[in-house]
Amino acid sequence: xDGWPDLFLPLxxxxxxxxxxxxxxxxxxxxxxIGLGYVGLPLALEFARKYRVVGFDINxxxxxxxxxxxxxxxxxxxxxxxxxxxxFTNQLDDIRECGVYIVAVPTxxxxxxxxxxxxxxxxxxxxxRVISAGDYVVYESTTYPGCTEEDCVPIIEQISGLKSVxxxxxxxxxxxxxxxxxxRPLTKILKIxxxxxxxxxxxxxxxxxxxxxxxxxxxxxxxxxxxxxxVENTQRDxxxxxxxxxxxxxxxxxxxxxxxxxxxxxxWNFHRYFPGLVGGHCIGVDPYYLLHKAEALGFHPRVIAAxxxxxxxxAAHIAKIAVQKLIKxxxxxxxxxxxxxxxxxxxxxSDIRNSKIVDIVxxxxxxxxxxxxxxxxxxxxELQHEYGFSLTNELGSDYDGIILAVSHREYRNxxxxxxxxxxxxxxxxxxxxxxxxDKLEGLDYWxx
Length: 448
Known about the structure:
By secondary structure, the chain is α/β, with parallel strands linked by helices. Helix content is 38%, strand content 14%. It has helices spanning 11-14, 20-25, 40-47, 60-67, 118-130, 147-160, 198-209, 222-253, 257-264, 286-296, 302-328, 357-366, 380-387, 416-422, and strands at 31-34, 53-56, 86-89, 100-103, 136-139, 169-172, 191-195, 216-218, 337-341, 370-374, 399-404, 423-431, 444-447. The strands form two sheets. Strands 3-2-1-4-5-6-7-8 form an eight-stranded mixed sheet, sandwiched between helices. Strands 10-9-11-12-13 form a five-stranded parallel sheet. Helix 5 packs parallel to helix 6 and helix 8 packs parallel to helix 11 (302-328). The longest helix has 32 residues, at 222-253. The protein is elongated, with a radius of gyration of 25 Å.
C-alpha cells in the first residue's frame, strides 16, 4: 500500500472545506451575539444588515423590548431595527445551530474592587452547552490578558467535551463603542481582531472587516488584543488622575485648572486631559482588571494604583467643598438643600453603571444634607434599585447650592438668571466640567 495513500482517503477529506466566513455569507450558519447591552446590540444589528443573526440575552424583559424595536439602553432609535435579519431570544435551543458565538457581556468589579467574572463564566457555560465542532467563539468583553484562554475557554471545553483550536476556534476582538458618541458609531471605529491560529484570525478579520468601514488591525495573539484594550482605558485613567491631582493643588492656590489647561494647550505637544469624575464601565473599572492580573503575578503596580486612588477620592472631595461652603455661610447643614444636576456616568447617555455621582450623593447624605437629584436621561426606578435613591421630578428653588455634575445637553446653555432663580441669594454653583467658567458674574462659582 506504500506510495498510494491518497487513493484510500475517505471522500470527506478530498472535498474542499468551506471556511466559516463563507458559510456565514452563504447563509448556512448564523451569528449569535450573547449579551445585548450597549455593545452587543449595535453589533448584532450591524451584522444583521448582511447575515442571519440571533441575539441572545438572559433578560426576558429586554428581549421582548428588542422584539418590539426598542433599545433597552436607549441608545438606538427604532429605525435601527428595521429590515434586519435578526431574531431575539433567551432560549438556548434557538442558538444551537449558530456557527459564530460572540460574547459581549459586562465585566464589572465587585465591592472589593476585584474582577467579577461571573457574567463571562456564565456566558462561557452557555456557549459550552450549544457549541459544535467547527464553530467559532469570539469574546468582546474587556478583561485582563489571559482571561479568554485561561479562564473562559476551559469552561467551554469542560462542558462541550471539545478542544479549542482542534475542534473549535477562539478569537478576541475588544469592543470600542463610546456610548453617546454619534460621530463615531461602531462601523467608524477601527477594530482589533485576534484568533487562536492563522485560520481563525483570517476568518474573523473577514467577518468583522465586512461591516467595519474604518478597517481591521490584526493582533498577533489573543493576549495582545486583550492587553491593548485594557491599556487604552488604563492610560486614560492615569492621565485623568494627574489632572485631578493638579486640580487639588491649583484649588489651594486659587488657580482655575481649566485656565491652566487652556494655556498649556498652546504648546504643540501638550495632550489635553481634564479633571473630573471617572465612572462608567470602562475607564473606572478596567484598571482594576490589570491590577488584579499584575498582583497575581507578584508585581504591584504603583502608578496605576495611585491613579485609581486619586480618581476614586474625587467624589468625596467635591462633597467636602460643598459642605465647607455651607459652613462658611453658617448654614445648618442638616436643613440645607443641594440640587445635583446629572446622575448618569457621562453626558447624554442613560447608563448609570458605576456612576460616581452616587458617591457624591452618599457623601453629602452622610453629613445629613438634603439632596435632590435630577437627570433627564436616567431612569429613576433603576437608580432606586441600584443605589437606593430616586430622581426628584421637578427642580424647585431656594437651594443652598447646585452641583452641575453631568454636562447633559439640557444643562449646557442656561442663562445666569436660571441659576439665580433656583438658588438662594448667596447660593453657590459647583460646575464640575467647567462649562460656565467666565460666563457667570453674580454667583459664587467653583469648578475643578
